[in-house]
Structure formats: C-alpha cells, structure tokens
Amino acid sequence: MRQAFTPQPLPLSLNRASARNPRPPLLPSTPNIPRQLSRLLVPVWVAILASCALPQGSTEFRPVPSFRTGARILFQGDSITDGNRGRSEDPNHILGHGYAFIIAARYGASFPESNLTFINRGVSGNTVSDLAARWQEDCIGLHPDLVSILVGVNDALFKLPVDDYERTYDVLLARTVASNPNVRLVLCAPFSLPVGARKEAFAAWYSGIKERQEVVARLAAKYHAALVELQPVFDEACRRAPAEHWIWDGVHPTYSGHELIADAWIRAVRAHWPGP
C-alpha cells in the first residue's frame, strides 16, 4: 500500500533566508486579471523590457527609408573607406573594418528581407583624380542606387590645387548622375584632429582640409546630395575623450571614430531622404 506523502517544513534557516530575499515575480503582480489574460500580457511586457534595453537615441533597428528593397549601396573613397578591405569575394573581409562595415552589418542584419547589397571600393592613398580614373569600373559599372564618397585628405596631403579638386569632383558627380538620374549621392566632408604628426603645424594643415570641406558642401548643394559633415562630430566627441581616442594619427579613425562616422552617416541620410 502506497504511503501518503506529507510535505516537510523547510529548515528554519532557509525560511528566514527566503523571507529576507524573496524571489521577484517574473511579471508585475496582476491579482485582478484572469490567468488567461495575464498570459496574453507576457509578450507586451517582453517588448517593453526589450525597448528599455536600447540605448537612448539609438539608430539600430530603425529603417533608413532610402534603403529600398534590393538597393545597392556603394562606398567610395580613400584609406578611411578602404579599411583594409579584402580584394576577393570573401564576405568575411570584403567590406573592411571601418564605417562602411558598421553600416552594412547593422542594416544587413536588421533588415535581411530588404535584400540590400553593400559594396566597398575605397582605395588607400586615393585622391579625387584617382577616383575619376577608375570611376567607370568601380562605380558606374556596379549600377549603384546610392553612392557615398569620402575623399580629400590625400589631396590636402599632396597639396594638390583646391580648384582641381573641385573641378574633378564635379565632373565625377556629373558622370554619376548622367549614368543614373535616380542615383542618390552622399558626400562626406574630410576631417582631421591635431594628433600624431598632424599635431605640429596643425593650423596650416587644417586650412587645406577646411577648403575641401567647403568644396564638398557646395557640391552637395549643387547635386542635392546628403551632406555628412564630420568635423563637427569629431570636435564634439573631443569634449568627451581626447582626440587620440577617436583618431590615432590625425587622419585615420580608431574603431570608436569609425562608429562616429557610421552614426553621422545614418543620421544625415535619414534626414535628407525621410521617405523612400
């Protein structure tokens, strides 16, 4: 004959511990809500908790309207864009390790159903004339829907005439629009901070950067492009941490600096084209 089970009281020490540290409920107490309705509220509470976990002002998980389904997004420029990218079809390295990778990773993962294609054709050491020489193959022939360009620091480094920079850049954009009147252009202005070799005689160096920033602003207005002004972003960031935290040599960003570029890029593109 099976003996009846009689529950035994917990040891006094455990009872006291439980009283001091009661286990918190998984959900807020709902004494007046039927059990079935309480179960239905579980997804609501999960969503609320998940939303609280996102950083304030986070750009993640919010779509960029100009990233239409099937869009091809091309990043062009110099070493800042290159990011030591791979030159093969290996998807593990093809976008490099800079801001282009951050943007592509964020939106490729968040919106896989949009079937977005991100392409990086930045080349270390390039000037705007170098871009022009390879533009047919590395831009027009790729049939992009959105073209992002960040170039100018090497033009300043080699002290190439600002007038030539503007003229060549202008022709480059005109060719792009002629090949696809619906293309969307994103122009990123060059930037610098007084770090490393650039710390000495920074004012003279920066005057060349500033001239090219002004050129990019004029061209963005002429071609109705989204303008990504990066100098104010880095200047503001230096109020939170030293310049070396964001740019290691006066020109090339650290991983933290690339995140600043990615966030500024997304904000500018979203603001310029609020609709699809």
Précis, in short:
With about 280 residues, the chain is an alpha/beta fold. It has helices spanning about 10-20, 35-40, 40-55, 80, 100-110, 130-135, 135-140, 155, 160-180, 200-220, 230-235, 245, 255-270; strands spanning about 70-75, 115-120, 145-150, 185-190, 225-230.
In words, what does this structure look like?
32% of the residues are buried. With 276 residues, this protein is α/β, with parallel strands linked by helices. A five-stranded parallel β-sheet has the order 2-1-3-4-5, sandwiched between helices. The protein contains 13 helices and five strands. α5 (99-110) crosses α13 (255-272). The chain has helices at 12-20, 35-40, 42-53, 79-82, 99-110, 128-133, 135-138, 153-157, 162-179, 202-222, 231-237, 243-246, 255-272; strands at residues 72-77, 117-120, 146-150, 184-188, 226-228. The chain has a single domain, classed as SGNH hydrolase (Rossmann fold, 3-Layer(aba) Sandwich). The protein is globular, with a radius of gyration of 27 Å.
Helix-strand pattern: HHHEHHEHHEHHEHEHHH
Summarize the main sheet.
5 strands, parallel
Distance between the termini: 76 Å
Mean pLDDT: 85
Domain count: 1
Q: Find the CATH superfamily.
A: SGNH hydrolase
Label the CATH architecture. 3-Layer(aba) Sandwich
Query: In CATH's first tier, which class applies?
Result: Alpha Beta
